[in-house]
Design goal:
Blueprint lengths: L7 H26 L25 H29 L5 H26 L4 H25 L7 E2 L3 H27 L15 H28 L4 H25 L5 H24 L1 E2 L3 H6 L16
Antiparallel strand pairs: 1-2
Helix pairs in contact: 1-2, 1-4, 1-8, 2-3, 3-4, 4-5, 4-8, 5-6, 5-8, 6-7, 7-8
């Protein structure tokens, strides 16, 4: 039996999951930038005696507690993803697997968030918390994209070497985000005035971050040109342009915030831009190939171009 794309309603649930994952990263950034990271100084309780903030505590507790409550919203949407994945008939293993990944990583995030509080916002715990969120966003994009495809073997729309260059571009985006967490763990916005910092030179680590940003921008431009000169489908080209549309203002904002003392609102927007970088970079890979539904694929003639022979992929 042919396994087709999931229902439009299920895709909307998967999209809501992606939006929720981005939203909790932004609200987590708000917690850090308002020095509210230890507003609730224990976990899972807010403090040693209460599960929730009370009138006598500062506003920091309410900000931190609010972010914790959003975890339940994100978790509920992740559960909905699993429900809709299993309601798809015939059932698709790739969709159910990716849906379960959402629940597993949300649970991991909750536990890691507790470790972050219990270690008094140690920068390694904070960095791990953010990196897991970025991986979760990437998997949410994969779930949404795969839900719009069929089960036929992946067929490349570009030359194989361009596909590998696309992988390299996404790897650069990952390296940029990892170094970005080191910048965050070294800079002034720790989430609490007593929180530890990485023992790194902020100027050197910030410039390494900037160098990687330039390298990623150059790779994205090269990928866009390669797709253009090889007459790749416009859909694939447009996805790279979306990536560039995120990288350019993100880079400019990074420079502006650095030379202006890292104002909180700019840092928050920059964090949002990092989530969009993950989204657009992941979507680039899905734009370089296509998966039709198996029945349709069997009826249509295969492309004669050697570079567009079916290629099995893992995403």
């Amino acid at each position: 039996m042919s396994l087709q794309a999931v229902s439009p309603l299920a895709r909307r649930v998967f999209l809501a999951n992606l939006v929720a994952q981005i939203g909790i990263v932004v609200t987590g950034g708000l917690v850090r930038l308002t020095d509210s990271g230890l507003g609730c100084d224990t976990w899972p309780q807010c403090n040693n005696t209460d599960w929730t903030p009370h009138e006598a505590v500062s506003h920091h507790a309410y900000i931190e507690f609010g972010n914790r409550m959003l975890t339940y919203v994100v978790g509920a949407i992740a559960v909905a993803c699993v429900v809709f994945a299993y309601r798809q008939l015939p059932r698709r293993r790739d969709i159910t697997t990716l849906a379960w990944v959402q629940i597993g990583t949300v649970a991991g995030q909750a536990g890691l968030g507790g470790i972050t509080v219990l270690t008094d916002l140690h920068p390694m715990a904070v960095a791990s918390h953010l990196l897991l969120s970025m991986l979760l966003i990437g998997s949410a994009v994969m779930l949404y994209e795969r839900a719009g495809e069929g089960d036929a073997p992946a067929r490349l729309l570009v030359r194989p070497e361009i596909r590998w260059f696309g992988y390299g571009t996404v790897a650069l985006a990952g390296a940029l985000i990892v170094v970005g967490t080191l910048v965050t763990g070294t800079g002034p916005h720790a989430g609490d005035l007593k929180a530890k910092r990485f023992d790194l030179d902020i100027d050197q680590i910030a410039w390494l971050h900037a160098d990687l940003a330039f390298l990623l921008l150059g790779a994205a431009i090269a990928l866009a040109l390669a797709l253009r000169v090889t007459d790749a489908p416009l859909a694939a080209q447009h996805r790279v342009w979306w990536l560039l549309g995120v990288l350019v203002p993100q880079g400019l904002l990074g420079y502006v915030q650095y030379f202006n003392g890292l104002p909180e609102w700019m840092v928050l927007v920059h964090m949002w831009g990092a989530t969009l970088t993950v989204v657009t970079a992941t979507r680039v890979l899905f734009g370089l190939r296509v998966r039709a539904d198996a029945a349709t694929e069997a009826e249509e003639p295969r492309p004669a171009v050697e570079d567009r022979e079916p290629v099995a992929t893992r995403y």
